[in-house]
Design a protein that fits this description.
Blueprint (H helix, E strand, L loop, with lengths): L1 E7 L19 H16 L6 E5 L2 H12 L10 E4 L7 H9 L7 E6 L3 H9 L12 E6 L13 E6 L1 H4 L1 H7 L10 H25 L4 H23 L5 H13 L2 H15 L6 H27 L1 H14 L2 H8 L3 H21 L6 H18 L7 H32 L6 H12 L1 H12 L4 H5 L1
Parallel strand pairs: 1-4, 2-3, 2-4
Antiparallel strand pairs: 1-5, 5-6
Helix pairs in contact: 1-2, 3-4, 7-8, 7-12, 7-13, 8-9, 10-11, 10-16, 14-15, 15-16, 16-17, 16-18
């Protein structure tokens, strides 16, 4: 089976003065795009074979940015700069492709639109109708001569844009949150609409799975939407809101294991656990396999028709007259009344915690702190000192939860090993060693002063 990758050059400057199209350099954004796609091309094995690049300045610069991000992978012997690829005609590009040597099993082309899109649609009509700058399409072709290619004879197996591969690039293009200076009803409604837009816009990055930050931000927007909705429900009655919040909760829960695995894998790369090289490698591979399984499950969820329908229902609900009417009753006084109740409940839970409190008790405290913070965020009158304290508590409780999660995944890994294996013993020892930092965090948490003292 042959593999063909087609990549459009990254974002370039428009010609000015007597600059010819061939000389157009990359914009700063274009350089960031190309750099973001370098690890993607490496993981897709698009750089394993021959790389053919148009001779234009913008395609050369795109390749240079990619190569610069992969210094340990010299590509001087496999890159070819070809004047024939400086074309905007799909027929010309197809003729060039059919003339490739038969030994070329894996080919990456960095070229121009509309030629690339015309070629892609000729290869597989399922190809997208647009190819944004620095985006890549991956096709598989049968093991027949390039010259014998037939229309529709390829299969599109991958498609990715820089904005779906890199959260920082996505963030630069995303709309800004609503103006905090607006009145509370307008601001809250705009906030919910913004979060709904973000949830939908983050989905391609979550599905791509290249940057774990997409999943994290997806969960953040789901949970903030739910928290705002719960806050609204605690202040006034809104018909149908309970059902909508249940759907949001379900979506967030469906991504919990994948997020925990992402965090553990990231920590494993940054930490030096007391494991032998072989045990660490096997643990990492096992976690990656679990991550792939969970990612597949999340992708199936996002692709389900009922999921899209639920999100559309939530969007329509936000825009409904019932919500508008409920938001008109939302005042700082009402929010503060609910906030006082939540703070009192938090302080009661905190007072009941003892040194032998269960991990689940601290997890419940963490959820209370998050709900308080999201509610406090609704009103600009909340003091910065109070918000800083909430963030501090949320961070410590989150660190505690991360250790608990790490221990749980270590237990699951150990369960997959033979009873007397050396690897199992090593992981048990690491798990036991995590109790020390966990206990230190527990002591810090138990030393929290009542929130009512901080808020006052």
């Amino acid at each position: 089976m042959r593999h063909l990758f087609v990549m459009r050059h990254a974002k370039a400057k428009q010609p000015s003065g007597d600059m010819a199209d061939h000389q157009r350099p990359l914009r700063k954004r274009g350089k960031r795009q190309a750099a973001a796609m370098a690890p993607v091309l490496q993981r897709w094995q698009a750089l394993e074979g021959e790389v053919y690049v148009s001779t234009s300045a913008r395609t050369r610069a795109t390749f240079d940015e990619i190569a610069g991000r992969l210094p340990d992978r010299p590509m001087a012997n496999q890159v070819h700069f070809d004047e024939a690829l400086y074309t905007f005609e799909g027929d010309a590009l197809l003729a060039w492709l059919k003339a490739l040597p038969e030994g070329a099993e894996r080919v990456l082309i960095i070229g121009h639109n509309p030629a690339l899109m015309e070629l892609a649609r000729w290869l597989d009509k399922a190809s997208p109708t647009k190819l944004s700058t620095a985006s890549v399409l991956h096709f598989t072709l049968p093991q027949t001569p390039w010259s014998a290619m037939e229309q529709g004879g390829a299969t599109l197996v991958g498609s990715l844009s820089p904005e779906a591969a890199s959260y920082p690039l996505f963030k630069r293009r995303a709309p800004k949150p609503p103006d905090p200076k607006n009145d509370m009803a307008t601001r809250t409604r705009a906030m919910l609409a913004h979060q709904c837009w973000m949830i939908k816009a983050l989905e391609p990055g979550v599905i791509a799975g290249e940057d774990p930050e997409f999943l994290h931000q997806y969960r953040v927007n789901l949970r903030r939407s739910r928290a705002v909705g719960e806050s609204l429900r605690s202040v006034t009655k809104v018909p149908g809101l309970k059902k909508q919040l249940k759907a949001l909760k379900h979506r967030a829960r469906a991504t919990s294991d994948l997020r925990d695995l992402d965090v553990f894998l990231e920590d494993l790369g940054n930490l030096s656990p007391p494991l032998s090289a072989n045990t660490r490698k096997d643990l990492q591979q096992w976690l990656q396999a679990c991550c792939a399984e969970q990612h597949n499950a999340v992708c199936q969820l996002l692709s389900a028709p009922e999921y899209a329908e639920q999100l559309q229902n939530w969007q329509a609900f936000i825009a409904s007259g019932e919500v508008k009417k409920a938001l008109s009753k939302l005042t700082s006084k009402r929010i503060n009344a609910v906030l006082d109740k939540r703070i009192a409940a938090h302080d009661d839970d905190l007072a009941l915690l003892a040194s032998d409190a269960s991990d689940a008790d601290l997890h419940e405290l963490r959820k209370r702190v998050k709900r308080i913070r999201y509610l406090a965020d609704l009103t600009p009158a909340t003091s910065k000192r109070f918000l800083a304290q909430l963030k501090h508590r949320q961070r410590l409780l989150g660190d505690f939860q991360d250790i608990c999660t790490r221990q749980a995944w270590l237990d699951a890994f150990c369960a997959s090993l033979s009873p007397d294996s050396q690897q199992k013993q090593e992981c048990h020892q690491w798990r036991a060693s995590l109790e020390e930092p966990k206990q230190k965090l527990r002591e810090e948490i138990l030393a929290f002063v009542p929130l009512v003292n901080v808020a006052s």
